[in-house]
Amino acid sequence: MLVTKCVSTNEKGHLTIGGADALELAEKFGTPLYVYSEDKIRQKIREFILSVNKYYNGNGLVVYASKAFCCKEMCRICKQENIGIDVVSGGELYTALSVDFPAKKIVFHGNNKTYDELTAAVENGVGRIIVDNKTELKKLNEIAANLGKTAGIMLRIKPGIDAHTHDFIKTGQIDSKFGFALETGEAMDAVKAALDMPNLKLRGLHCHIGSQIFDIAPFELAAKVMLEFFRDIKLETGVELEELNLGGGFGIKYLKKDYHEPYAEYIKNVSAVVSSFSHELGIKTPFILIEPGRSIVGVAGTTLYTVGSVKKIPDIRTYVSVDGGMADNPRYALYRSDYEIVCANRAEEDRTETVTVAGKCCESGDLIQENTKLQPVKSGDILAVLSTGAYNYSMASNYNRIARPPVIMVKDGEARVVVKRETYEQITANDI
Ligand code: LLP
Which residues of the chain have pLDDT under 50? Predict the structure, then answer.
């Protein structure tokens, strides 16, 4: 049994992804190769939409956090599915706009957006700019005034929740570079300042408590903390804010031992808390936004590699080296992230060996997984690293001047290229 139903095996004993034979994909498109199941992406998006409709009367918007995986085709899928997109840089904004994604449904994040990025957001009519700090608040008001426009904004708040996740990706606590602190009064000051700015329209508040969270409780707690602040704002200023953005962070299953409730359960529970608690506090039930990234694309993606050498170091370990590595997937090097790996051409055989899968970069830490179970493999075999759809392609680099792999999408067994393989000409294009 493999960790995700996105992959299966066929009569040849080969791994299949979205109905396509992984070996044929590797043969046709080369390796390393990012492969996505389009149906799985759409299914996850619909799971969130249906849950918001069912449990919150549709009074909300699902906003895909494109930092997890951004390319034009992904933005087109979001457009077709009628959801919003969260962008966090001028580049992600540009990508979304380049497929005519409706700017009103774009949410623009970032703790240090540049003048040019903010200008592009206002000029293009981005629906919600999430303001992170006072400097940005002033700058944005000036930009909007100069352009003769009013910018829709939300303020990013630190609700001070410890979501028990990896330290590097925990952002809701007070010691975070993101957002305004509640405890110090900074958040209330920012709300008052925003309400006084003529070219800004404060639509509501945002929080994001971390990533790869399995528990539902921290989301419920965050919603409560935020709603109490809505109430405080009403009491102090008389203004009732309309929107509550609860961010993303819903966990996915990387290994069989990982467990999370269906996403509908998160939405059901959080919706119930928001409805009942806002009623209890005597404030309007807000329009909600959620920003899932990993939970939409994570399990839909698989990376294929070709095995080069297999190096057995007696009594120490066996290194299986592949033709990619930290340049296309830096997550093990960065976070010691777990992945399940399977040999695509012997997918039905037992994984009897314990090996370390290493990349080809000139760096000892360039590993995809240490001491992982794998079928006995030899040079030329194809390895599939599962659940690599989130933060892999989007975090890829050209370290060692390695060209980024292409991205293909599979639908009904048919594959199409959505991002081409990078060439050496492209890598050297900006060199003088
Ligand atoms: N909204 C905001 C404001 C965020 O900062 C993030 C992720 C999301 C939504 C989406 O979170 P998700 O649903 O994907 O968990 N590079 C790390 C993850 C960094 C997440 C940053 N923010 C990794 O590879 O695990």
Answer: none
248 lines ligand 1 (CB under 6 A): yes
For residues 255 and 246, the answer to whether their CB atoms sit within 8 Å is no
Q: Which CATH superfamily is domain 38-297 in?
A: Alanine racemase (3.20.20.10)
Positions of CATH 3.20.20.10 in the chain? 38-297
Which stretches of 100-210 are assigned E, i.e. beta strand? Answer: 106-108, 128-131, 151-158, 180-181, 200-206
For residue 409, the CA-to-ligand 1 centroid distance in Å is 22
pLDDT in the model for residue 168: 58
Q: Which atom of ligand 1 is nearest to the CA of 68?
A: 14
Does residue 379 contact residue 293 with C-beta atoms inside 8 Å?
no
Known catalytic residue: 75? no
Ligand 1 in reach of 404 Cβ (< 6 A): no
Q: What is the pTM of this model?
A: 0.97
State the Cα–Cα distance between residues 306 and 308, nearest whole angstrom: 6
Contact 241, 196 (CB under 8 A): no
Residue 194 in contact with residue 140, Cβ under 8 Å?
A: no
Ranges for all domains in the chain classified under CATH 2.40.37.10: 7-30+300-427
Tens digits of per-residue pLDDT, 417-429? 999 999 999 999 9
CATH fourth-level superfamily of 7-30+300-427 = Lyase, Ornithine Decarboxylase; Chain A, domain 1 (2.40.37.10)
